[in-house]
Amino acid sequence: MSCTDSASSSHGGEYKNFRQITRDRLLLEMLKSSSSGDSRGWKVLIMDKVTVKVMSSSCKMTDITDQGISLVEDLFKRRQPMPSMDVIYFIQPIKENIVMFLSDMSGREPLYRKAFIFFSGPTPKELVSHLKNDSSVLPRIGALREMNLEYFPLESQAFTTDHDRALEELYSKSAEKSRQFDITMTTMAIRIATVFASLKEFPVVWYRAKGMDGTSAATFRDLVPVRLASAVWDTISMYKTSIPNFPQNETCDLLIVDRSVDLIAPIIHEWTYDAMCHDLLDLDGNKYVQEVPNKSGGDPQRKEFLLEDHDPVWLEMRHLHIAEASEKLSDKMQTFMSKNKAAQLQQKDNSELSTREIQKMVQALPAYNEQMEKLSLHVEIAGKVNKVVRDEGLRDLGQLEQDLVFGDAGTKELIHFLRSYQHTDTEFKLRLLMIYAMVYPEKFEGDKGTKLMQVAKVPSEDIKVFQNMKLLEGTNSKKKHHGAFSLKFDAHKKHHALRKDRTGGGGGEEEETWQLSRFYPMLEDLIEKLGKNDMPKDEYQCMNGPRPKNAATNDTSAKSGGTANHPNSRRSRRTTKPHAPGDAHSSNSTSTATDFKNMGQRIFVFIIGGATRSELRVCHKLTAKLKREVILGSTSLDDPTQYISKVKMLSE
Fold it and tell me: Distance between terminal CA atoms of the chain?
């Protein structure tokens, strides 16, 4: 019996992305490894409310049954005794779970024959002692291991710690004196650390250090990233001695920031297919419900589709600008209809079909139906998105949002829009006012904000949104080109700009490909600076101490023994061609077009308080550009409606 993490590693051998490694650890290292010796038969898998979410975020039920699991059970539900079967427990190392395990396996009549225990995180010594002290249970334990896997993959390059209330628990008015603050911070740190335990990565830990340069007093909210970075560092440092084959030197970078790094990204309209679907359509997570005609002539049937990595059309379209995605889907449908044999034969008169043609059509029909279903699904979705864009006047709204952020619009343009588009969705207008408040904070002093809200016909109670945004912003210092409140109240629009314009010509700048693709999240600049080892020293510090300027951040030898890539390679530039490499709204910016074999060291970014889909898109884009897999972590992945609801909760 051992209480160690596995010896598997992400270094050496075939390169696997973040989600693949997570899936392999669960299926092979945990489930398959329990099938040896006299334990080769079918097994029961028991999980708690946290680990079942870990498992379901990476594996399907068919994956689990393929590894010899015949039944999946909830630890805290009443279960039938199965004394002839072995059981695998994948549970958190907490007291109540150990109590439930002992009630299952102790005494003369245990529920199962032999138990293989896998803990999701670091296990306190007193809990291990508690298990060993029961003499009736000890002989029935086939394995006792720390999997150190307690994070929740969202897709191939993103995960959360499942702290949906992090903003409220860490940044609200009552957070500082709340016991929940420490609980959330501790759990979050452990879950982040298990990412590095799982991938066998030892990071250089960077963090945003607001208010620590001596120019102003740091608030407790300013220190949240510092405290989290310290807790993550302490946990990961222990792995160097507790996990076999864990790296002793740095193999990657981790940057920890909070939502104040960019308060614009969560509310501005992001014009990619992925973001538009989640922003404008009534999705349940990633689930889209399509109504299809009933063959028997009754009410339409409701069919559910998941917009996830297994859908090749979704993978290709998700990070494209909605206009490009719509064009591509239309082209794909036309090409498919003109080249697919079943489609061609279906367009003929049935009386003209020969027996051979009918045979060909039958053979081609399954593939035809599958591809047709996928394409028609996305054509329908894109059509619904474009209808909302037209009906709500979102092109003009989106243009004004970006003009405000880049300093090309002011109060006059805002008032004109609000009077011209009085029937635009109330939440869209609220988001516009939130952007305006960040660009022109003086316009919300006194009762000025209330008057603007009356012009916009936004409910008066939403004034708390603007008040609560200041809780997230924290210390006011050096906020140029930031998604935060500025203290500089110049009269000229350009002096209020929250972004440097990256468009418009040469000199390494990027050209716009599609209208309304001008906006970029601050995370893009930060990751590029981190990739060049050029982080602003007055705002970002490192737990490991100063990193050498010539550090080999793109060294692939830490991964697979390959040759190092050049960290300062020429930047990819967007051009007027729709498929330009590195284009923020091109399919080449996604992981599907990335050559992972020649990747340098990974970059991890963790955002406290919720990440956005624009930030996720940037991580895919920069993976191809920097030739380093960029993995985004956060407490949650929020769409604008969710984010605004959380901001409202800060004062309650």
Answer: 49
